[in-house]
């Protein structure tokens, strides 16, 4: 039996503004997280300081890992941790909710000390669980990041995608109860 792919959480940001053509849509990966399921209840702990820039997302949806140099990636990560998510003061993001019988994850996300309801459909594909949340950062008091006096900025939305083994222990379709997924 092959080892299942590890749990992954990715974040997609989208450019905006007058000079958006000079900016990039990005994919980031969350390096540290824990998601627990007990029956239909789900909870999660996420450490945003562990976000890493994977690369630039092209119009075709592919990620160009060489699209940014190491110094640009480091600068983006510093902006995220120091200016946007203020990880020194708010080192953890949390989620508490439940999976409804209709396959929807419904809960509350706590970020920067503010709680906002979130919902996402969950689908099973083979031995994987997938969910995508569209988040509006301004709901947590986060202004869209701007550069060049606002000529380049990020949209006030991002997509968080979860890709989890259906069974965190064996990679099969039947998930034990309770269970935990952790970052690789």
From TrEMBL:
Superkingdom of source: Bacteria
Protein's name in the database: YceI family protein
Pfam families given in the database record: YceI (PF04264)
SUPFAM superfamilies hit by this protein: YceI-like
Domain Lipid/polyisoprenoid-binding YceI-like: 63-159
